[in-house]
Design brief:
Elements: H1 3-14, E1 19-22, E2 30-35, E3 43-46, H2 50-57, H3 66-80, H4 84-87, E4 91-95, H5 101-109, E5 114-118, E6 129-133, E7 139-146, H6 149-165, E8 173-174, E9 178-184, E10 187-192, H7 210-217, E11 221-224, H8 229-232, H9 242-259, E12 263-269, E13 278-281, E14 284-287, E15 294-298, H10 301-312, H11 330-351, H12 361-374
Parallel strand pairs: 8-14
Antiparallel strand pairs: 1-4, 2-3, 2-4, 5-6, 6-7, 7-10, 9-10, 11-12, 12-15, 13-14
Helix pairs in contact: 2-3, 9-11, 9-12, 11-12
Amino acid sequence: MSSGAAWADAVARLWPDAEVGTGSGTGAVREFAFLPNAERPRLLLPAGVPAAAAGALRRYSHDLGARQRVTRVLTTAAVRAGLADRALRDRLLVTGAGESVEDRLGALLGRPVVVSVGLGSERANRKPILHALTPRGEPLAFVKVGDSPMARELITGEAAALGRLAERSFHGLRVPQVLHHGEWRGLDLLVLSPLPTGPLSFRSRRDAPVAAMRELIGETRRGPLAESGFWSRFGDVPLEDLDQGKRLADAVGRIGETYGGDEVEFGAWHGDWTPWNMAWHRGAVQLWDWERYDPEVPAGLDLLHYRLQTGGGYDTWPDPAILAPLGQTGRTAAITTELYVLELTRRYLVAAQGDLGTPLRAQATTLLDLLYANAGRTA
């Protein structure tokens, strides 16, 4: 399925009683403009509603550099002035009647709703993500749409995670609130409160938010690795490739023999803490995408993951010295680092299965090779 066709299919599920097609014409109940075009789509902006389209672009992550922020400010201003309606020529037209996702969200949020649509790269966990705004461009919510078994599982997990986090009190960390989680027309909708971001809160993406990570880890507990719930997940990892399964089991066995009796400090982690999943705002870290949250992992995995995503790469063993800001050194840091690579390898191997897992297969193989070559080495 081509890129444009995949996006049209996603929109058709959001307007289940309507017809969705490309081109231009009159009588559409909603018209979307591909940004930048249908060949390389990054976002669908609601055409004819310039304030809402501009609001959909007014989102700044920690991953954006100073030049990118300036570009986004200028682009947002141009869209609000209506220039996008003339410059963005590739369109999706929604024609027909019946309840749409905008109608459903409007009923849930108590305001008229216009959405922009994001889809992400093609992989097993791909799903539509909507930015719900008023026609005047006021942000109301972000909405994750579960339209596949894996997407439903992930957003159900995120809803549960955010429910647990709502019971905790944070000082320098902000997380979304669950406004609604339920089924609509065969889709699961997870409606989340928007987190504020702005163009002026620029910091280098290499600045890891260590204090906020420490706050999320929370109260820790210590115990032998082999007796932990974390370790139990590696006992039987179902993989289609039997050779990969044997290599992973061998690596797990060597790690268990070397470190199984070691005391490990366990705490919470976000699971995918990267610059593009966070932003600084008024001195606090705004953090979204909690699908991989886990309350019991070796403390420090978020910092290792952040560093890997900002320059480490998948073919080099992470430096245990990364964990020094969290007070981990020597054998303790080496064990945490090895367990991080093990967890990441397991995640990628599972996600790389089946046809939808093809884009992740090369990374999964690289990680398994790295783990297999280093598993159980004495710290």
